[in-house]
Write a structure and sequence with these properties.
With 410 residues, this protein is α+β, with helices and mostly antiparallel strands. The protein contains ten helices and four strands, in the order H-H-H-E-E-H-H-H-H-E-H-E-H-H. A four-stranded antiparallel sheet has the order 1-2-3-4. The two termini are 13 Å apart.
């Protein structure tokens, strides 16, 4: 169920979930509104296509003056008329025009669905990127704190003459590198927040963002994703619709080789000079049944039909190429997901060991037993495990977001 925008904004005063962000982005997107308007235009044009099966009715007024050829033949004629026209057969072109218009309407729906999925993916990418940057900032701040503590110990040992000065210098270099990485992560967070603000068209604070949960047990299968894409992917379905339209357009062209049958009628009402006009010009009410058949028009219809066949072949080739590309995309996403999931699993298992190893090495260094290189290595292993967990967690979320995009989910 879609929540009213004001409720979402009210609830996001203190927090902003990913789902809320997607709903706000969809409601505020100008591109979604554009595609929605085009969808309504397609619906209107589809209804208009049925007018071909309706009769046309129009009326008119004629004021004519007959220049006298003799002194007694001058008169002014006033007449009203109503005309009726109805096409009985047009080579089935009107019928296939309706089917073509239906496919065009369907493509506007696919375009709207695709735009929504595109906006949802951009929102997810910015949101997930911001969460990952926040997690890396926390890891780096903790590392900064640890290295600062190590630096103070090393400096104390140097002052006491227990350790060489290069230990203190090594700690300072490690601290400087950490600060550089921290600044980079903060800039990355700022970029994602700005991107999210542009999408949501409102102010966003990083503290408002709610963390997301991942399902480690979820299994992705390439063939299942590919089959779902064939049923749901709007780009693929839009191409299929274009192919159907090309077939209907070709049948409309075939209708040019068939006759056209029309029924028409006209009724006149004369105000002045009616008798003279009727006698002189024969203007009276008529009903007409006419058949017309184009026997030759410079081979125009033949070449148009030939061009439509080539266009149909080109669309079929595009569909085949897109299907191949879709399967490769599904393979890549499943590979990325499985890699991120395995990395998350291994890093999670390694973290506890890395923490224990760091605590032991840190204590041994404080007692003067371990070397500073052992301490730096232990700290690096701990930092790597934490960083890998953050990257793998949000890598899983990013891969699932791309799968949802290919399946037009949001």
């Amino acid at each position: 169920m879609r929540l009213p925008l004001f409720l979402i904004l009210t609830s996001s005063l203190f927090s902003l979930s990913l789902n809320d962000a997607i709903i706000i982005a969809l409601q505020k997107s100008d591109l979604v509104q554009e595609k929605s308007a085009l969808k309504k235009q397609g619906e209107a044009l589809y209804k208009e296509s049925f007018s071909s099966f309706m009769p046309s009715l129009n009326t008119g007024y004629i004021l004519s003056y007959n220049a006298p050829s003799t002194p007694r033949s001058a008169y002014v004629l006033n007449s009203f008329n109503i005309r009726f026209e109805y096409n009985l057969f047009n080579g089935l072109k009107d019928y296939y025009r309706i089917l073509d218009s239906k496919e065009k309407k369907r493509r506007t729906e696919y375009a709207l669905i695709n735009e929504r999925a595109n906006i949802a993916l951009k929102t997810k990418d910015a949101y997930i990127g911001a969460l990952q940057s926040k997690a890396l900032i926390e890891v780096l701040k903790e590392r900064q704190k640890n290295i600062q503590t190590q630096k103070n110990k090393a400096l104390q040992f140097v002052n006491q003459g227990i350790r060489a000065k290069n230990e203190s210098l090594s700690m300072e270099i490690a601290l400087s590198n950490t600060l550089i990485s921290l600044q980079s992560a903060e800039l990355s967070l700022e970029y994602y927040i700005k991107t999210l603000e542009q999408i949501l068209k409102s102010k966003v604070f990083s503290d408002e963002l709610e963390d997301i949960e991942i399902d480690e047990a979820k299994v992705l299968d390439t063939d299942e994703i590919f089959l779902s894409m064939l049923e749901r992917n709007s780009e693929y379905l839009s191409l299929l619709s274009q192919l159907d339209s090309s077939k209907y357009q070709k049948k409309q062209l075939l209708g040019n080789f068939l006759p056209s049958v029309d029924l028409s009628g006209v009724k006149y009402w004369y105000i002045d000079g009616g008798r003279a006009a009727s006698t002189t010009y024969g203007l009276q009410s008529q009903i007409r049944f006419s058949i017309s058949w184009n026997l030759f028009n410079g081979l125009s219809d033949g070449y148009k039909l030939q061009a439509s066949r080539y266009y149909e072949l080109s669309l079929q080739s595009r569909i085949n190429a897109l299907k191949h590309e879709m399967y490769i995309q599904a393979q890549d996403l499943v590979r990325q997901y499985n890699l991120a999931k395995e990395q998350y699993k291994i890093s999670t298992q390694t973290l506890q060991k890395a923490q224990e190893n760091y605590q032991i090495t840190n204590n041994r260094y404080a007692q003067g037993i371990s070397t500073y290189t052992e301490l730096i290595d232990a700290e690096l292993l701990l930092n790597t495990a934490k960083t890998n967990i953050a990257q793998a967690k949000y890598g899983i979320a990013s891969a699932l977001a791309k799968v949802d995009y290919l399946l037009n989910k949001w």
